[in-house]
Amino acid sequence: MKIQAFDNDFGAEITGVDLRDPSDELREAMHQAILNHQVIVVREQKLSPLEQVSFTEHFGPLEWQENKQHAHPDHDKVLVLSNELRPDGTAVGVVDAGDYWHSDSSHHEEPVMYTILQSIRNPASGGDTEFCNMYAVYDALPDDIKKKIAGLYAIHHVSKKLNPRTKISTSRPGAEDFYEFQAKARAEVRQPLVRTHDETGRQALYASPRFTLRIEDMDDAEAQPLLDELFKYVTDRKRPHHYRHKYTDGDLVMWDNRCTLHRATGGYGLPDIRRMHRTTVVGGKAFYKPAA
Ligand code: OGA
Ligand code: MN
Known about the structure:
Blueprint: E1 2-5, E2 12-15, H1 24-37, E3 39-42, H2 49-57, E4 71-72, E5 75-82, E6 112-121, E7 129-133, H3 134-140, H4 143-149, E8 153-156, H5 175-185, E9 189-192, E10 194-196, E11 203-205, E12 212-215, H6 220-235, E13 242-245, E14 252-256, E15 260-264, E16 275-282
Parallel strand pairs: 2-3
Antiparallel strand pairs: 1-2, 3-14, 4-5, 5-16, 6-14, 6-16, 7-13, 7-15, 8-9, 8-12, 10-11
The chain binds N-oxalylglycine (OGA) and manganese (II) ion.
């Protein structure tokens, strides 16, 4: 097993392992690698849906899947992300997954801790995933902003209909109705704006343009400009907190949603096909603990 860290220790590539039937040592090495680097890229993997589920289960309980119609036929805990359409026009997988910066399922009381994407098929160009190091973003904030946001909560919601920072993708069949349904059926969830990582103890900014709507107990006149200011650290490409992953077939990418944001960058289209197999681990409630 070889671990090669990317710039600033954010992200690392792991080669020389087979995750189909990992030993306890390998599993623990993967756990340490993700705590150290936040995003890990494991090359040349070939996990079946069932093997991907058993590997994922080592890290905790798998997330309940809302998108049943896009589950893999061999295992309903594997979500298919793809732009492929069936002859009848229905989508094989989720078409517009992750098109704005976010942390997975921060709109749930118990958000996703780890996400695993196995790259099955890649378009000739495009389809990269971009990551942002939210420990580094927190560390880079001026002291007055750090003081201001300490202990605050923000309100997260899944529906794009409720979020002026997002637009609904025209490539997703039935998207308007889907987000309209979610706007009514799904609840708001409060999350700490600064999240203390339960394993590393480090502080990370925990908010995103995709899911964070406002700040609890703060007027929008003050809260929206503050959120815009915070999100500049994520969206301003000149800041050195990012890693952009270009996939090769067989890459298995795993990231820690407690301390990163990510987004799909798009840039491909039919007849070029992108297909990913996705599994997710739920990881308890987010919390903030002031530094001692
Ligand atoms: C996800 C996600 C981004 C991508 O699977 O949670 O946001 O590039 N995916 O597919
Ligand atoms: Mn995502």
